[in-house]
């Protein structure tokens, strides 16, 4: 007769199952944060940065116009030293406008490339989310069922001769002849 399995630690399986559930929950929260960051970045590029740099261009254009008016006034008044300072202010304002326009173009470029660059990575995140939700969910359910089955098995009492009404089977010694079906003579 085969020996009984020796189940020594159901607690180890239960502990592993509990840790697997905690891992699944924590990893799910991290994936939610990643998804939120992707959405937040998309909105930041499409709305916030575009609006910000468009407003900066307008503000810097007004500043440039004001500096050009000051230069024109200084040139009309014939102030040589004042017109040099005004020329430098106009150049600085032009550079500021060009910088804001370049930044807006960069934001527009990022916006166009965002989905191309982020989408493949986002698909990996969704695959991982599927694994966490489905595969680890199945694993947890399987471990719980296995724990229950092993606990039920461990509680079974071994069949003994007193319970079955027959003597327990014993292995013949190597020196004894095998028992025959009839009585000994």
Summarize the structure.
With 185 residues, the chain is mainly α.
Give the topology.
Blueprint: H1 10-77, H2 80-155, H3 161-164
Helix pairs in contact: 1-2
Main features:
rod-shaped, 3 helices, 185 residues, disordered C terminus, 80% helix, mainly alpha
Based on Cα principal axes, name the global outline. rod-shaped
Radius of gyration: 41 Å
Proportion of strand residues:
under 5%
Helical amount = over 70%
Q: Report mean pLDDT, rounded to a whole number.
A: 82
Helix and strand run? HHH
Structural description of this entry:
The structure is a single chain. The chain is mainly α and 185 residues long. It has one domain. The chain has helices at residues 10-77, 80-155, 161-164. Residues 160-169 and 180-185 have low confidence and may be disordered.
């Amino acid at each position: 007769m085969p020996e009984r399995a020796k189940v020594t630690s159901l607690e180890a399986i239960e502990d592993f199952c509990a840790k697997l559930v905690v891992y699944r929950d924590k990893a799910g929260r991290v994936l939610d944060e990643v998804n939120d960051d992707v959405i937040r970045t998309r909105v930041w590029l499409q709305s916030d940065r575009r609006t910000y740099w468009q407003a900066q261009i307008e503000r810097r254009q007004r500043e440039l116009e004001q500096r050009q008016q000051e230069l024109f006034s200084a040139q009309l008044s014939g102030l040589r030293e004042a017109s040099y300072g005004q020329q430098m202010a106009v150049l600085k304002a032009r550079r500021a406008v060009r910088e804001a326009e370049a930044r807006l173009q960069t934001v527009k470029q990022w916006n166009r490339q965002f989905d191309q660059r982020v989408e493949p990575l986002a698909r990996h995140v969704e695959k991982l989310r599927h694994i966490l939700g489905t595969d680890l969910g199945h694993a947890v359910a399987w471990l719980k069922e296995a724990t229950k089955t092993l606990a039920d098995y461990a509680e079974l009492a071994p069949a003994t001769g007193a319970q079955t009404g027959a003597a327990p089977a014993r292995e013949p010694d190597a020196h004894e002849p095998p028992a025959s079906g009839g009585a000994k003579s």
